[in-house]
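User: My collaborator sent over this chain with a note saying "see what the structure looks like." That's all I know about it. Can you take a look?
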Amino acid sequence: MTTLENEITIAAPREKVWAILTDLGALDAYDPTVANAEVTSAQLSGVGASRKVDMADGRHWFSEEMTLCEPTERLAFELTACNFPISSLRHSYEVESVGEGTRVSQRMEYTVKYGPLGVLMDKLVLRRQSDAGIKKFFAGLKEHAES
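Assistant: Without extra context I'll predict from the sequence alone. Here is the result:
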């Protein structure tokens, strides 16, 4: 299993950042790696809410479900389907007030497909690409929340 950890401080109130993170259909409004995000569940947010995301590269997609929602504090998603070489993925967030801003910490844990070949792909390519994608997501979140 691979674990990636990132965090960012955003000059915006915690409630605003939380509202952005929990608006499942709006991911494409601030994540430059996403072309489209569509809520696929009857509920729009909270545990059990789900979405399908089409990536900006035009080839990749994933579906995920919110599995943890502690309002304005903690949030987590688990992958339910994808066309990446990933067999399982969970990403969780902690949101905390820092002065007049907000710190968002993310922990992503995933397991690759294809056994030893997948582990090698992860070490050579996937880990670096995943971390770069998270950093782009965070930069977009910061810009969106601060505007």
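A starting point for your reply to your collaborator: The longest helix spans residues 115-146.
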